[in-house]
Amino acid sequence: MRQLVDHFMHAVVVIARSSARPVAMSACGWLLAFASAGAHATESIDEPLLRLERVQHFYAQMASAAQLDRPFLEVAEDRPRAAVRARGIEMARDIYSVERAMADIRSKMRAVGGASPAANTLPEIATRIDDIDSSIERKSFEELQAIGQAWTQRYQARPDRRKIDAIVAAMAAPALAGETVVTARRVKWVYETLIVERPARLEAIDTAELSAGIEVIMTRTRGPDHDRQPPLLRRDDTQRMWKERRQVVLAQLPREDVAELYRIYAMATTRARINVLKAAFRSRNDADGRQFMTKMIGEGRTR
Fold this sequence. Notes:
The protein is 72% helix and 0% strand. It is mostly helical. It has one domain (2-302). It starts with a helix and ends with a helix. Mean pLDDT is 83; it is low at 1-42.
């Protein structure tokens, strides 16, 4: 139990620090920020699933990653850093379109074969989870410290804890949280390259070499975590924190809500939709990331 308490409190500290340092930490605000994904359909589980998985929220964090700054940017130069960040923030708002991403994901989920299960009470459950998350956001750091152990103990004491764990294990959200780390790593590479390298050296790279180099970075930024990375740029840590956060939040729900979520997430059609959702999210993130890096480096070659 002590380990679970420590993990939960570690997540709480991340929230508080993100609020206290909005510029330096804003790129990592995806870890524990929550938002409603809008209206939902009653005839299908797709829209409630998108809300439960925080898809719109996570994709919005892609553009927020462009606010990455020290200590994550490991460069000494100040003058080019400010200009590079300003242009990156502007460009990211245009490229990482939440509207385009959501339309693409919805289209691919609709194409999944088989009948879509009825949503039943899923929209109402999603609303209750939104309310719990919103109440957490409104609390101070001291209040979060006070409730952390009590919430973890409530999760530990739940007779349906195994169902909660099974739901969290089936959710797409941890993988989506990991995608925001991939984006932050790409932003870090682009910014540090443009700050350190001089335009003449960048200009000497032809289009084919630039394209090949970016593909290498696309792969490397999906690579495993390592000790030299700041903790909030480690994908495994981010995914683990999200899983633990979901466990304690789901433990605040009535048993009938957990039972319904368990039923829905155990269905083969739901698992198929979750797999398509994760693949579509990743594909969109890669496409937008490739465009962001190519345009940023391209402009850097001619500045």
